[in-house]
Design goal:
heterodimer, A: 199 residues, alpha+beta, Alpha-Beta Plaits, 2 domains, elongated, B: 437 residues, mainly alpha, globular
């Protein structure tokens, strides 16, 4: 018989309705927990407030991504097709990449041909913003991952059908075997179980 | 979450605005209006040619807000939106200023004012004289004139749209139609809203929605044609299919900024405290942001195609505005009309802060002013043979602006006192008051 080491992931409690889940979330928030989450089959309006979640940092990442896109497009276009960089004393940049000032419709080859580059600047801004949104989101929420400890619970799959759950993780500094369980009981949680993760 | 407001928390009969409370601003607008009117009368009789441009600028600038107000109530009704109920009356009153504006716009019907503004009308009037002599139609006479002056060929081909016939699809009939249509829309929608103030019946909301869905098309045509008749007409050789949308984007943008400012002003006087929350500022700020981008998109699309294609008939508009003194203004518009507001309105906390949003709105009104100025005034110097800038004419522009915008502002703010500041028996008022986004 082999022995497997197990680590406590946290307490999982089930609730009957959105309303119960919402109020339970408020109680867990007020108790000062930080490492916990709620699971429901659909998004619940106002849950962010009930959980006391701070605003996401994602917009700042996206802004930086967008600015990068604009800059990349601007530099790429001006460095290859205009004499702009030589005009501001950075001609060596244009020696590194071969510059072919492109004269179209008698347009100038200095900075004033900028409008011609706007569509690409616009598109790269969108592209970089979109990529930052997607990959930044995945990074922030820790996806993709192979498995999640909560999948060990037999009860948990209901979260994608009609189950409403709160899970308080063991790594939360406030977590205690007795205190956390009684909090969930007091909040009206049912089927409270200690979820364990194999290592 | 903030406290949930119920119907009982709000005063019976809504909130009535007392103009005496906002006397400072109303008085200032009235004073500016009065001084402007006196100065305008002087300029009208002594500098008719240059002042015609000033007047068109001032009237169209004010017109954009009224048209924008009309758009927001239409959109609100068509999209069946609930959030805007608490601020809807502000737009309804704004849209209903159209009748007063018609009085200010009426000088544009005078041939003395049209002569310096619309060169094509002079050619048409000359053609009409020839036609009378030679017993041919005006269009044929115009065709004869075009043989000597090939520039006029474009007027022959545009005759179906650009003509001065007393009936049919002509400049004059359209002029009247614009005001009638906008007045009809504004009056009907506010009428439904006021009936609802009496009985609180949802059927008025439904009727308003059905009505709006139908007239939205006519509204769009009105704005487009008005923009062509009054502004593109300044240079009859010019073409741009983007023009109507361009003007419309500015209208919606500026009138949203104006309504935010009016709401902030009313709140500072103690009104709308419970009805309008930071969430409304956020929602209106988002629309403002959307239209900042939309305007830039349209403005750039118009510029880009004309600049790149470099077709003689199309480039004149930008050639005038992108050379000599106006070039700086053009670049300023790119930065001030788009980049600045874009960056300022990007973050959510700033949009939720009434003080910050209102500051941005003041800037937006200024930029909209610059935009309309940049559209109308560059035509003046070249058309009248006075050089790039008609010297000293800026005083006339300010006089006209004070006269039209000051008087209209005075009338608008006083008019707010007539009805409750929000539709107090709209069934969705509570939904709007407690909106979270």
């Amino acid at each position: 018989m082999s022995t497997t080491l197990k680590r406590v992931h946290g307490y999982l409690a089930e609730f009957d309705s959105v309303k119960d889940l919402y109020h339970a979330a408020e109680q867990v928030r007020d108790a000062g927990y930080s490492r916990w989450d709620v699971h429901s089959p659909f998004p619940i309006h106002g849950m962010d407030d009930a959980m006391g979640n701070p605003r996401s940092r994602l917009p700042y990442l996206v802004f930086c991504g967008g600015i990068t896109g604009t800059t990349v497009a601007f530099v790429l276009e001006t460095i290859t097709q205009t004499n702009f960089w030589s005009h501001i004393g950075l001609g060596f940049l244009q020696k590194i990449v071969e510059t072919y000032p492109t004269v179209v419709q008698a347009k100038p080859t200095d900075i004033w041909t900028l409008p011609a580059f706007f569509p690409v600047m616009f598109e790269l801004t969108i592209l970089f913003s979109a990529f930052t949104t997607l990959f930044g989101l995945l990074a922030l929420i820790g996806l993709p991952r192979w498995n999640h400890p909560l999948f060990a619970s037999r009860n948990f799959p209901k979260f994608s059908d009609d189950g409403f759950f709160v899970c308080i993780e063991a790594r939360d500094p406030k977590f205690s075997q007795e205190g956390t369980k009684s909090l969930l009981e007091k909040a009206g949680g049912k089927n409270i179980e200690l979820v364990e993760d194999e290592i | 979450m903030s406290h949930h407001v119920t119907f009982n928390d709000l005063p019976q009969g809504g909130e009535k605005f007392e103009p005496a409370k906002g006397g400072k601003l109303i008085g200032a607008l009235g004073l500016f209006g009065l001084l402007g009117l006196v100065a305008s009368a002087w300029f009208f009789f002594n500098n008719t040619d240059t002042f015609a441009y000033s007047w068109l600028f001032a009237v169209f600038f004010t017109f954009t807000f009224v048209v924008g107000g009309c758009f927001w109530i239409l959109l609100h009704s068509v999209s069946n939106s609930g959030w805007g109920v608490s601020v809807r009356r502000i737009w309804e009153n704004l849209a209903n200023m159209i009748l007063a504006l018609a009085i200010f716009a009426s000088p544009l019907l005078l041939p003395a004012v049209q002569k310096p503004l619309y060169e094509w009308m002079n050619h048409h009037r000359e053609a009409a004289e020839h036609a009378h002599h030679d017993h041919v139609s005006v269009k044929e006479a115009l065709h004869h004139m075009a043989e000597a002056n090939p520039h006029l060929h474009v007027l022959v081909t545009k005759f179906g749209y650009m003509n001065l016939n007393p009936v049919g699809f002509s400049w004059y009939t359209r002029f009247v139609a614009y005001f009638l249509i906008l007045w009809g829309i504004a009056r009907y929608l506010r009428g439904k809203s006021l009936q609802q103030d009496q009985d609180g019946d949802i059927k008025h909301t439904v009727r308003a929605r059905q009505f709006s869905s139908i007239v939205l098309l006519f509204y769009a045509l009105t704005v487009t044609f008005a923009a062509y008749d009054w502004l593109v007409g300044l240079d009859y050789t010019w073409f741009s299919t983007m023009w109507g949308v361009y003007i419309f984007a500015g209208c919606a943008w500026a009138s949203m900024a104006l309504s935010i400012l009016v709401i902030t002003w009313l709140r500072s006087l103690g009104y709308l405290q419970k009805v309008v929350t930071d969430e409304h500022y956020h929602l209106m700020g988002k629309l403002l942001f959307a239209f900042t981008v939309f305007w830039a998109y349209i403005a750039f699309s118009q510029y880009f195609l004309i600049w790149y294609a470099n077709v003689t008939e199309e480039t004149r508009f930008y050639l005038t505005r992108n050379t000599e003194g106006w070039r700086g203004v053009s670049i300023f518009i790119v930065v001030g009309h788009f980049v600045g507001p874009f960056l300022l309105l990007l973050s959510q906390p700033r949009k939720k802060n009434p003080v910050v949003v209102s500051m941005v709105c003041i800037w937006i009104l200024f930029m909209h002013l610059v935009d309309i100025y940049w559209i109308v005034i560059p035509e003046r110097g070249p058309s009248l043979g006075l050089g790039v800038f008609a010297p000293g004419a800026w005083v006339q522009d300010i006089a006209a602006l004070c006269a039209v915008f000051g008087t209209m502002g005075f009338l608008y703010l006083r008019g707010l006192a007539k009805y409750s500041l929000y539709p107090w028996r709209d069934p969705r008022l509570i939904e709007s008051v407690n909106v979270v986004n």
